[in-house]
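Technical note accompanying the year-one report. For the benefit of new consortium partners, we illustrate the data format agreed upon in the data management plan: each record pairs a sequence with a structure-token string. No post-processing was applied to the example shown here.
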Amino acid sequence: MKGNIQISRSLKPKLKTERCRRCYTPIEEKYGYCESCMTRICETIESKIPRKYLGMYNLYFEKILQLRNKSLFITGKTGSGKTGLSFGIMQSELFDGKSCKYICYPEYIDGLRNFQNDGMRTAHYEKMKIANYEGILLLDDVGAETLSEFDRETLYIIVNARYIYNRRAIITSNMSLNQVGEMDDRIASRIAEMCEIVEMEDIDYRVATV
């Protein structure tokens, strides 16, 4: 364990040879990384995963085993654990050496509107920078607020780019896929093809634990 991060051994990659997966130096333990590389990976995880969500890796361990290496559309009511599960998956992917980026969609859209005030070219550049991100894109809280035409078109651009270039996305939303389709069937169609649909339990854990 490094810092606050706990790594379940069954998720740690096993090596055929006793060499680090990153720097290829000989190692004593067969968990994939030397001590130096393991430290850097854990530092990366701690810099990208909010402290309150570090425990989600262990909480959703069994589900993470089933959902790794897939694009996902995680749907459920407020407080059902969508963000927690997505951060748990993101932590497992970071441990495996993959690049990930977290975007809170309402905050992202609010920032884009400010870019739009500086000029359409700047706003378009920012959209495409996220849409074409080569790592795993975590798009959180899509549809948390009523989506304007600008919001919907931005979401379409991002989803379409992930779809066309076969780049992984993890999308969380209070809306079901059918509700997304009622909003924009282009978006729903692409999500349906590229993502596995994950429906969370119909319970608000924030309220239930008060």
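Partners are asked to follow this layout when depositing records. The chain has two domains: 1-48, 52-208.
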